[in-house]
Structure formats: C-alpha cells, structure tokens
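Entry 12.
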Amino acid sequence: MENLKFEKDLVGMQKELLQFAIKLTSDRENANDLLQETSLKVLDNQDKYTVETNFKGWVYTIMRNIFINNYRKVMRDQICG
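Predicted 3D structure (tokens):
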C-alpha cells in the first residue's frame, strides 16, 4: 500500500478507533493512550501489511492485541507485585 494512502486511511479511522478503545478500556484517558500506542505500532509495522489484507480489520486486531497484552501485564504485576 502506498505510504500516503496508508497514513490517510489510518488517520481516517482515528475517531472510530477511539470509540473502540473507549469500549475496551472504559476510560477516556486510557483509551487515548491505547489509540496512540496502536497508531504507532501500525505505522512501525506498515511493511508487514499486505494489500490483500483488510486494513480496518488489521488495525483493530493490533489494537485489541495491545489491549490484551497491557491487561495481562497489569494482572501479572498485581499478582506478583
């Protein structure tokens, strides 16, 4: 996918990604952090994206995985901490 189109598509999704992040975190500040972390990871992994992949689904999967990993880390820190 062309760099400019890739970035434009990601920027165009920010509002709906924020809504999804709010549903996951139930907190606007944490949702903004999740959105930022997701956007950075998507941009960092742009070379791994293939054109035949559903872009929106790919980005949502990255966000969900980041949320799950962060949640597991918090739970692990509470148990071990």
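Annotation: Residues 55-80 form the longest helix (26 residues). The mean pLDDT is 94.
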